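Review box. Two proteins, two foldings.
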Amino acid sequence: LHHSKKRHVFLQKQLLKEKLNPYDRSVLELYFEGNRSMEEVAQLTGRSKATISRIVTRTRAILKSDLISD
């Protein structure tokens, strides 16, 4: 990864730690870092695919708004 890409990833992870509750963070880690589908995350967490989708959508919006405001 290029230095700027590494910094971007670092900033996103910091924002996740600061802004999200542990459950939402674990969902995102399974989805993005674990490279799992929403269906797989739903099965692993015992939640519906719709719930996982809402968490992913909401956290993307949080990250986007925080990165834009910086």
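Next protein.
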Amino acid sequence: GVDIPKGFGTEVCCVKSGTVSEIGTTGSYGAYVRIKSGKSEVLYGGLSSVNVSDGDTITIGTVIGKASVL
């Protein structure tokens, strides 16, 4: 994976259209959103807040949440 450092509260936008397949929290990622697009998935971790819901269909540029501190 690739970590892209952002300041706390910076909007995190989707880089590939798809469907939200999972939202959760882990010790290593904090809050995260997993987006399925065809045969691939993108996981956005390190979020302080989440702006989407499980099952939402989203497009490139959709704000999926806000960054936490990496």
